[in-house]
Design brief:
The chain is α+β, with helices and mostly antiparallel strands and 192 residues long. The protein is built from three helices and 14 strands.
């Protein structure tokens, strides 16, 4: 009788801790899930959607409102003070949820440029569509409205993606700022 109880408990334990059944994934629904690739192998697929632009805060740099200022493009070592207010504000008929006030050090003068102007002025690449990332974070806003501080740019990498079979012809523009990690990586010598 003891052996029968042990066998039953073993079977119940194995069934309860076994793999879960494969779920069907609807491609129209954005979610995290698994897709069955081969027996006992699965790839986790994660769809990421950026925050709603209507939920973003208004950003003020040295007392002036800066529409589309990308915070990751401001040198944190040059920030004298940062104040966050949770109150909503409306500017040019657009509601912002919160306010960020950045005051830079007196000796620092940020040189702001839109991503479109940066592309025209420095990159001189064809008019192909482009995807722009800053420190590996893809920028999803309107590039004409996105401002970056030129003083904090370390490198710009352009990767041309041309795949006629899939009708893809774009430029990937990777902007690296002068973070300690990026500077260390740029100074590293690669031996082949």
């Amino acid at each position: 009788m003891k052996n029968i109880i042990i066998i039953c408990l073993t079977i119940l334990t194995l069934n309860s801790s076994g793999q879960e059944k494969l779920k069907t994934i609807d491609p129209k629904v954005r979610h995290s899930g698994s897709i069955n690739i081969a027996k006992n192998k699965a790839i986790k697929v994660i769809f990421t959607e950026k925050n709603n632009p209507n939920e973003s805060p208004a950003i003020f740099l040295n007392g002036k409102y800066k529409k589309g200022l990308l915070l990751q493009s401001i040198n944190p070592n040059m920030i004298d003070s940062l104040t966050i207010k949770k109150e909503s504000i409306e500017i040019d008929n657009k509601k912002y949820n919160g306010q960020i006030f950045i005051q830079t050090k007196k000796s620092y003068d940020p040189k702001l440029i839109s991503l479109v102007e940066l592309k025209k002025q420095y990159l001189r690449i064809d008019d192909k569509p482009a995807i722009i990332s800053i420190n590996d974070e893809i920028i999803t806003g309107r590039y004409n409205d996105c401002l970056i501080d030129e003083n904090y740019i370390l490198q710009i990498h352009i990767i041309r993606i041309d795949n006629p079979k899939e009708n893809i012809n774009i430029n990937l523009i990777k902007i690296l700022t002068k973070t300690e990690e990026n500077i260390r990586e740029a100074e590293r010598i690669m031996l082949r």
